[in-house]
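retry 2 of 3: previous attempt timed out while embedding magnesium ion. Reduced batch size to 1 and resubmitted. Inputs unchanged:
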Amino acid sequence: MRIGQGFDVHALQEGGRLVLGGVEIAHTHSLVAHSDGDVLLHALCDALLGAAALGDIGRHFPDSDSALRGIDSRELLRRVMEQLHARGLAVAGADLTLVAQQPRLAPYVDDMRDRIAQDLKVEAGRVNVKATTTEHLGFTGRKEGIAAFAVVLLDE
Ligand code: MG
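retry 2 succeeded.
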């Protein structure tokens, strides 16, 4: 087994399209980013790359690369999985946490889990998505940004 963890933060801005865990979320704000800003999938990519000892998302998909502007982060996730599969690595389990004061994410987490499991090529029972607030404390509590944590186990 190999273990990996990932963490990411993006700032919120007014307007735009909010995408988390590959799911479009109805909200007044979106995340500032070079890609679609899917902070959950970025944390997950970092956890996967970490478990495979392949560095980090910034090394594989630099924001200086204009071809990646506005890219769907599910595409980044699928590219990471291609590299893992090429090395004979498969996902045994993934546990993911979103930290956001707003909007309320509970109604979306099952859809996120299903899409992520699809991209990881595992059954949905190997993926868990949680959402929490920080009780109005810190930058997430002030609604300045959204954070995400990811932990994965890989089988080799
Ligand atoms: Mg990011």
